[in-house]
Amino acid sequence: MNLKNLETCKGLIKGSYVDQAIQGTSQFNKLLETLLIHKKLPNIGYNDKIIELILNEISMMDSNNFIENIGVGEREGRIYSGLVEKRHYGFAHGIGRSGDITEQQPKAAGSSLIQKLTHSLVLDAMKLAGLEQSSLSNCLLLPMATGMTLTLTMLTLKSQQSQSNKRYVLWPRIDQKSCLKSIITAGLIPIVIPNILEGDMIRTDLNILEEKIKELGVDNILCVFSTTSCFAPRVPDKIIEISEICKRYNIGHIINNAYGLQCSKILNNISQACKLGRVDAFIQSTDKNFMVPVGGAIISGPNKEFIDQIARNYPGRANSSPILDVFITLLSMGKQGWLDLLKERKELLIYFNEKLSTLASQFNERLLNTINENKISFALTLSSKILNNTTQDKEITTIGDFKNSFSFSMIGSKLFSRSCSGSRVIDLETNKKAIIGGIEFNNYGSHIENYSTSYLTVACAIGITKIEIDTFIQRLSKLFKQQK
Ligand SMILES: *Cc1c(COP(=O)(O)O)cnc(C)c1O
Fold it and tell me: Where is this site: May act as a substrate filter by repelling compounds with a negatively charged alpha-carboxylate (predicted)?
């Protein structure tokens, strides 16, 4: 209620009571004012009721919610279902106009405000997570997952006039299909840069990368596509060195930072890469970093003009709910909640590492030594002993039977059937060839041709709890006991 209406209430109820109520409601207005002025995460997250009040107030600013509005256009934000209306807090106009996804909508001041505020909140969250200001010229939250957003980013790079003949994308191998598809769907040609081994770790081969640049010629190369977040034993690409190479040869550099916002080491490296070399953009998923449903990705980078160009290249309007999800979530977490989540993950990483090492040694397996470089994912060896021992107490009738009954991948499916999701088994006993986007890969899934052992991967991702880790270790241990 505004002040005038509150004063009018004095004709209905005691003035002193109304004065108290004015104090109460002004506390809410103060919160809103702080948010509008500072555009930063609130120190302590807001409760759901306050967030809903904010959403309802802002939603009233969109024309489809004006009490006296009559819509005579072809897009009036009409919502048939009350459930759908509720699910979106009455926001129906989406974001952007046909010329620019960040352009403000005359019919939807509220939606435009949410988009603007969310971009500021995301920038604040990224800074709090450890990125330096100089690498965060701006950000763009799009309602597409990471793969599609990578495609749009590469297409924008290509659309810049001088880049138009450049078709090659140098891509240090990462066995994640959306990465490769994002290049192919952009109509570009991926050049696989095979990785090298360094101890247990699978790493970027900078020599081959540079050789390929010379071989293909800088005039034909659009960019290097590097990746920071990946399953162990692959570790994040050497993005600082890559950015320096890209600067030296004047070729683009796009970093796939899918779930890297939760890891300060990765963010440090991105900041350094932006400072020392060339980074055109880094892209991260909203669901993997901010605990919202799948549907959004964030583009950021040191060059504001490039980010703005991507916004201008986006054809048409877009759905705003992935933005609303992030807006709600960041208001709900607040600065403290976000920092606590990041800190807890860091602490649990050490805990998970210890637990897995102990479990590994109990069963004569080994936790692969990748923790210094990969601070999100772990890999635990699966030795053939597990298979040999199980074959002893089972009768084998056919070779097919043998293969099906005792492949390591059973461990993955058994874990899944015991309600443990997310672990992956890489079985190198059976060399899996895969053709993706017309390119053949040996041992697809393992990021390299011939790794020395089969293994199981798990991740210590944001939001995981100690209880989940303990329960997982119990279940895995039980499974190994049955196997060995
Ligand atoms: C999740 C992920 C992607 C993108 O997948 P989307 O489904 O498009 O979000 C790309 N690369 C890696 C390493 C990922 O983990």
Answer: 74
